[in-house]
Amino acid sequence: MTTYHTPALLTESLDGLNIQPSGTYVDVTFGGGGHSRELLNRLGTSGRLYGFDQDEDAIANSLPDKRFTFVRSNFRYLANFMDWYGVEKIDGLLADLGVSSHHFDDETRGFSFRFDSDLDMRMNKKGNLTAAKILNTYTEEALADVLFHYGELRNARAIARAIVRERATKEFRTTAGLLAVLQPFFSREKEKKQLAQVFQALRIEVNGEMDALKELLEQAGELLKPGGRMAVITYHSLEDRMVKHFFKSGNFEGDIQKDFYGNVQSPFTVLNNKVIVPGDAEIARNPRSRSAKLRIVEKK
């Protein structure tokens, strides 16, 4: 069997949460349960842990522990479910925003350009929007915006134009069809990186990832107790920028508000001004952790 997912920055993220044995915690990206297992090891008998995951495949990894509750949902509904379970405040929250190895390695899900599969990319298989639907129905301008903003591709407009031209004669169904259109735009030296940017852009759009992250951060900020902590691991600059701004200023624009005396008005204290990244040993052991960045804050 292949490993569902190897958690990145495991020790660093959980140490950063400063786990209280009787506390209430949320792992909003349960996946293979790697972070949750270690978190439970640090909880006492009266502690509680809620694990969120919108993918039905993750249900099989649920932990047989009376202190743990699996919630099959997108983390953007964090506040609703905490209210449902009667939880008014939490002591800490962990988010490992990377796509799990399970998704990249599952040939049927369309997350990787390594396989010729349906252009799906849904984290939640019940979702209506797929990568194929985006490629076949979005306007040229909308496609260019997705590729530019979420993939940070400078030639987004040219790629969008080629996609629209191709679909006029044959609709997109599989990754192979998309790769055939993309190939002329990328040099051999940068091909893998740029293909990854295209697939990232489509995946973010399919799953509404940036909006979901924004909603999560706002709700988590409200739910945290004073002294409670939030640890977020990001994997690309769009996520990291949003988290960095919110942690430093309490808003997504990064606008620092100060009081009459010049004190920064933010609901959080940033605990690591320098972002935490994996060491060489972890990257060698888990190459997919190489782009991970960890930021930790404490609620004032």
Task: Give your account of this protein's structure.
It is built from 12 helices and 7 strands. With 300 residues, the protein is α/β, with parallel strands linked by helices. The chain folds into 2 domains: 10-101 and 209-299, Rossmann fold (3-Layer(aba) Sandwich); 111-207, Putative methyltransferase TM0872, insert domain (DNA polymerase, domain 1, Orthogonal Bundle). It has a 7-stranded mixed sheet with strand order 3-2-1-4-5-7-6, with helices on both faces. Helix 6 crosses helix 7 (156-167) and helix 10 (209-223) runs parallel beside helix 11. The chain starts with 9 loop residues before the first helix and ends with a strand. The mean pLDDT is 94.
Mean pLDDT: 94
What portion of the residues fall into strands of 2 or more residues?
5-15%
Q: In terms of structural class, how would the helical and strand content be classed? A: alpha/beta
Largest sheet, spatial ordering of strands: 3-2-1-4-5-7-6
- CATH topology label of the largest domain: Rossmann fold
Measured between the Cα atoms of the first and last residue, the distance is 44 Å
Looking at the overall shape, the CATH architecture of the largest domain is 3-Layer(aba) Sandwich
Radius of gyration: 20 Å
Which CATH class of the largest domain?
Alpha Beta
Regions with pLDDT < 50 over 5+ consecutive residues? none
Question: What name goes with the CATH superfamily of the largest domain?
Answer: Vaccinia Virus protein VP39
Shape by Cα distribution: globular
Query: Major sheet, described briefly?
Result: 7 strands, mixed
The strand count comes to 7
Order of helices and strands: HEHEEHEHHHHHHHEHEHE
User: Helix fraction?
Assistant: 25-40%
Helical stretch count?
12
Number of domains: 2
